What does this fold into?
Amino acid sequence: MALNTIHLGNCLEWLKTVPDGVADAVITDPPYSSGGQYRGDRMQDTNKKYQQTGFEHLYASFDGDNRDQRSFAYWCALWLSEAMRCTKPGGIVCCFTDWRQLPSVTDAVQAGGWIWRGLWVWDKTEAVRPFLGRFRAQCEYVVWGSRGGRPPREDIGTLPGVCRAGVNSRGKLHTAGKPLEVMKELVRIVPSGGVVLDPFAGSGTTLLAAKVTGRQYLGCELNPEYHRIASERLAASYAEMDKAGGGATLFS
It folds into this structure.
């Protein structure tokens, strides 16, 4: 399988075509199937769930975000199990989630065969929407683990467990998009030149973070609009590299 590519299609089908042990880490931001307090809340369009009133049409909606708690955990265990096969022994999984689905994702990571190692926290700062009389829900979480043992890595060192960075609304290209600076911090768990696998590439921020920090990548995205955006972002990055004299591109 050619590296530095992004596939258009369903990740469960695509992962079956990925060779064993090709990735150093699975770093991904799947649909949360979250939002609201009730089953009916989760069934809404993703822009209605995750955008403030009046801003619902800024981004393309995406599928797969309406599962209940049990089916969400089962679905996660399916793709996490297949993704583990694609990862080297000792390799890493890093899966984003929010506070509502945190228990389900920690269970699913272990059901998928990974050893759960802990949490990495994205602190979105105090700029998130306030609710009087409550604590701010200003963090999202990365459940991380390893495929089997994880020996010490001097080439990686000890990394921070928290990244504090506000949401960059102007640079956002996806309803649930993460800032590039956040993903650049997260991919530091992968050695230079290593391979990042992202089954839910979205607008391509994880893949772009891998590319600009000297890693390689394999990605998959179900939504044609987001696949187009991700492909264009990566192509633009390679074109910029070539313009600066960075040599032949790897994009295909």
